[in-house]
Specification:
Elements lengths: L2 H14 L3 E4 L2 H8 L11 E5 L4 E6 L11 E5 L5 H6 L5 E5 L5 H10 L3 E5 L1 H9 L3 H23 L7 H14 L4 E2 L4 E4 L20 E6 L1 E3 L2 E2 L2 E7 L4 H19 L7 H14 L11 E3 L6 E5 L12 E4 L2 E4 L3 E4 L2 E5 L4 E3 L8 E3 L2
Parallel strand pairs: 1-5, 3-4, 5-6, 12-20
Antiparallel strand pairs: 1-2, 2-3, 7-10, 8-9, 9-12, 10-11, 13-14, 15-18, 16-17, 18-19
Helix pairs in contact: 1-5, 6-7, 8-9
């Protein structure tokens, strides 16, 4: 067990009044135990008691080795895994992971009506939110590799190429440089597809006059990166230039607002107001950003409804965009780490407008 991380979670549990906590998200189990497991449909559950006792319930197929500070309780496919877990729970409060499948939770609640079940994820999310210097260094390395790989992907943007061609170029270069995978399926958008923030990368062929959004990320030593750049195929129109400059200024305003003590909703406001003041507010249709670390989307989010406040060690994206339906879109995204006196942008890839001859 990683005791320093466990102590943070235990402190959060006490503040929340939770006596027992079930940690089931594979990345949260990795965060606390150092063990990476892809459980599929099988149950994986780390039971943490407020006295510091830890028990990991895992299928024998996972082939886990005993670990210091955590009892390993294994079961087979024919065993009653929920029953094994149920028999070891004390009555009273139980915090449960937000992503634990109902096929496990509902039978447990049927068996143990003496449990007061509540959402327990904030105990772990709050610990994961503030990265150590070691974690920050890993995220810097992941972002630097992403900077390099997106450069290769941009170089593959040419007339006649498809969105999938560019996505495959990115994935291949990421693997060649040592990434263990992508932190999410690359979002490569051409032309009118750029007006869909979560467009499904497809077979659209690039043509002259298109804007091109590349939203990409990779995983290096378990930590995710995420960035977006927008380039143009052929000379951009005056409006494309204007929107690009607007989104870039919004990105810069959001990043400038980052410092300890600033509510994340104010970072959203700093970026969003630039776009609203220019008359394009109706076309910025998503939050300004999200936390990132072992998962590409982590707590907290950077939005008008966020209650989180900047603290050293937090890392999140700043990614304003403008999306004009049926025409084009622009998004520019960087990752920012909160420092003791401000913010550190983890990406160094240039924001200068890039025009590709098509």
């Amino acid at each position: 067990m990683k005791r320093d991380r466990l102590e943070k979670v235990l402190g959060n549990m006490r503040e929340m009044g939770i006596r027992q906590l079930l940690v089931t998200a594979p990345t949260s189990v990795l965060y606390l135990t150092g063990k990476r497991v892809a459980p599929g449909e099988r149950m994986l559950a780390l039971l943490i008691s407020d006295d510091g006792r830890c028990r990991l319930f895992a299928n024998r197929l996972f082939a886990l080795k005993p670990m210091d500070g955590c009892e390993l309780i294994e079961y087979s496919d024919t065993d009653d895994c929920v029953g094994e877990l149920s028999s070891r729970l004390a009555p009273g409060s139980l915090g449960v992971d937000k992503d634990w499948p109902c096929r496990f939770l509902l039978p447990l609640m049927e068996r143990r009506r003496d449990l007061a079940v509540s959402l327990g994820s904030p105990a772990v999310d709050g610990a994961r939110m503030r990265k150590t210097e070691e974690e920050l260094n890993l995220m810097r390395l992941s972002s630097r590799m992403n900077d390099a790989v997106i450069g290769c992907a941009i170089d593959s943007v040419r007339a006649g190429a498809t969105e999938k061609d560019v996505a495959e170029c990115y994935a291949g270069e990421a693997a060649a440089q040592g990434a263990s995978g992508e932190s999410f399926p690359s979002l490569i958008c051409f032309g009118a597809n750029c007006a869909e923030p979560h467009h499904d990368t497809g077979r659209t062929v690039l043509k002259n006059g298109d804007s091109v959004i590349l939203d990409v990320g990779l995983v290096l030593d378990d930590y995710c990166s995420d960035m977006t750049r927008t380039v143009f195929c052929g000379a951009p129109t005056d409006e494309q230039k204007r929107v690009y400059d607007l989104v870039l200024r919004a990105n810069e305003a959001g990043r400038r607002a980052v410092r300890p003590g600033v509510p994340l909703k104010e970072i959203d406001r700093a970026a969003r107001s630039v776009i609203e003041d220019a008359g394009y507010g109706a076309y910025f249709i998503h939050r300004t950003g999200h936390g990132i670390g072992l998962d590409v989307h982590e707590f907290p989010d950077v939005s008008a409804s966020s209650e989180a406040v900047c603290a050293p060690g937090m890392v999140f994206s700043v990614e304003p965009g403008v999306y004009l339906p049926g025409r084009f879109g622009v998004r520019i995204e960087d990752l920012v780490a909160v420092t003791e006196d401000g913010g550190e942008t983890l990406n160094v890839k240039s924001h200068e407008m890039k025009v590709i001859e098509c």
